Structures are given as structure tokens and as C-alpha cells.
Amino acid sequence: MRLLVDAQVTRGSFALDVSFAVEAGETVALLGPNGAGKSTVLRVLAGLLALDGGRIEVVGEGGGVTLWDEPASDTFVPPERRGIGVVFQDYALFPNLSVLENVAFGLRARGIRASSARATALGLLDRVGLGERAHNRPDQLSGGQAQRVALARALAVEPSVLLLDEPLAALDALTRAEVRSDLRRQLAAFPGVRLIVTHDPVDAYALADRVVVLEQGSVAQTGTLDEVTMHPRSRYVADLVGLNLLAGEMRAGVLHLPNGTQVVAADSALSGPAFVAVTPQSVALHRREPEGSARNVWSGTVTDLDRRADRVRVRVTGTVPLVAEITPAALIALDLAVGQTVWISVKATEIIGYPA
Ligand code: ADP
Ligand code: MG
């Protein structure tokens, strides 16, 4: 089965307009900065917010289509009839119910007998390793345990679509790493559609097969992680993966930037609007104008030095703003400081364009 989303919705001054699909058996991460509209997408899918335009539909194995929401045909399926399990950002456990009652809640709401609902809930708690916590209250749990209870509660109703909003954001760094690998196993065991919302690329890397990058209410890019990281299509994605992104018009092997600067590329086959991703390791720095064969040479000003364990990222602002990555030894040899003028060079063989 697959979930097909074509959603337009307005919330105050914020407009969301996205299209994407998720197949059963794959985990898709909706990745983007705060305020991009990720939780809005999740609320729309969960049936907590109605669409203004577009449609949400589920296509079953046999090809049968179930419409969840389509304003044009006045269709709206309420949350409890969508076959979804939701893990909210703050887990939203009922504080006055025991862990067991929390997990059994959805089953009871569907009219399942108490004894049977409790047995199912206990089985699910065992599966997430929390059988012994069944009679605790949510406030007696650690963050990681609360996350697992929320997941068990979402799975209890045997959903075909599992939605998780920032499932790890509430946890401290140490717990997060542990819960992340546990969540990865739990997700892999769920056969339906899996969609997680996150602003953390590390979570997306660890948990998702594919990402849908959301920025300002629109899909900026979608693809496998490799595709997205190798060929970023927005400044946000390039920054996430630590690449420089240049955008311009490619003509006869030269990328023309909007400010008129020409960047010589490796191959001349591509023409038209194009991007170039430049790895910081391929940007060379010089104190004096370099001589020799590099044709892409520009001067600029050092505006930031970011010292990491075994490398230094140097931000140079100028005609072609770029981040260079050098070794600590090179930093000393070049005697660089913020405010200094430097020359940067990039070999044409490092400039590989792809269509915009
Ligand atoms: P994200 O989850 O990516 O951080 P959200 O979907 O929560 O983003 O929010 C997207 C935008 O929608 C934000 O700009 C926010 O101000 C706006 N928004 C969220 N909830 C409401 C609301 N209840 N009413 C009006 N605007 C809202
Ligand atoms: Mg959110």
C-alpha cells in the first residue's frame, strides 16, 4: 500500500503546499527547520486538521483507493477511522492513566473488551521491553521509556500508517542515541507506511530510507539520503550536509553566477540552470594570489574559523562565498585570522554541475 499526499492548508499567515508519497515498508523522514510546516503535515495526515485543497489517499495492495480528505468532494475521514498510529512530539501520554491503560486506550475506544485490550497492551509493552512498568504512571517513566510507551500505544490499534513527530527531540543526547537505535528496530518491524518528522539530520540518517525536505511550507527536495546529500537543491540542505552550493546558469562548461562571476566546470555537456556542490576539502586557501593552472581563483575575506577536532572550517566571503576545510597544521602555516584577505582556488575537476 501507499500513502499519497497532495496537501494545501493555511494556518494564519502560514501556507502549506506539499506533494509526496510514502510506500509501505519504507521509512520516510520529513526533514526541515523549525516552522517549516512538518507538524502541520502530520496533523493533516492524522485528521486533526482539515485540508483547504488537494487530497490525501491510501492505495491498497489490490489497487483500491481510500480517500481520507478531499475538500472538493466534501470527503473527510475522522482520525479514528484512518487506521493510523501517532506518536506526538511530547508523547502526549494521559497522565492520570497507568502505562497499561495508556496503551490499551485506543483499543477500548474501539469497543474492545477491557480484559482483551489489557492483554494486547501488555503484549505490546513486553515487546518494547516495558512489561514491568505496566502499572506505573507516565510521570514515573524516564524520557526514553515514555517514548516507548507512546510507540506501543500507537501500535496497539494495528495501524497501517505510523506517524511520529520529532520522536527523539524530548530526550537528552545520551538517551537519544540509545532510543534511536531501539526505534530503528521497532520501525523495521512495522510493515506499513512509516513517516517520521524531524529537524535533526542525524535522526533522518539513522531512521529513514528516504527524506522529504520541507522548507517554508513547500517540498524543497526529495530522494534517498545519498541523492539529497550529493546533490543538494537548497542552501538548507547544503548546510546540513556541510557542502558549498553554487547556483547559476551553465553554458559551455562554465557556471555563470547571478553576480556575473564565472566558475569553470569539469564537463561541458550540461547547459541551462544548474547547481554545483563543492566539497569544503576541495577548496584551497592561499595568502597570495596563486600562480599555475587553477582557473577558479577568487579573493575574499575570512569571516569565520570553526575549529573541529582534526580540521578547521574556514568561511570566506567575497565574489564566490565558500567554506574551505583545512587541517590545523595548514591553519598555522597560513597564519589565518578572521578579517584577513585570502585567495581561494578550486580545480575545475571539482566543479561538477547538475540540473536545477
Ligand atoms: P514545524 O513542525 O516544521 O516546526 P509547524 O507545522 O508546527 O512547523 O508550523 C508551521 C507554521 O505554522 C509556523 O510558522 C507556525 O507559526 C504556524 N502555525 C502552527 N500552528 C498554528 C496555529 N494553530 N495557528 C496559526 N499558525 C500556526
Ligand atoms: Mg513541529
Write up what this structure looks like.
- The protein has 356 residues and is of the alpha+beta class.
- The protein folds into two domains: 2-235, P-loop containing nucleotide triphosphate hydrolases (Rossmann fold); 247-355, Beta Barrel (OB fold (Dihydrolipoamide Acetyltransferase, E2P)), CATH 2.40.50.
- It contains nine helices and 21 strands.
- A six-stranded mixed sheet has the order 7-8-9-3-10-11, with helices on both faces. Strands 2-1-4-5-6 form a five-stranded antiparallel sheet, covered by helices on one side. It has a five-stranded antiparallel sheet with strand order 14-13-12-15-21.
- A hairpin with a 5-residue loop joins strand 4 (53-59) and strand 5 (65-70).
- Helix 2 (99-109) runs parallel beside helix 4 (143-156).
- The longest helix has 16 residues, at 173-188.
- It is elongated, with a radius of gyration of 25 Å.
- The chain starts with a strand and ends with a strand.
- The structure holds adenosine-5'-diphosphate (ADP) and magnesium ion (MG).
- GO terms for molecular function: ABC-type ferric iron transporter activity; ATP binding; ATP hydrolysis activity.
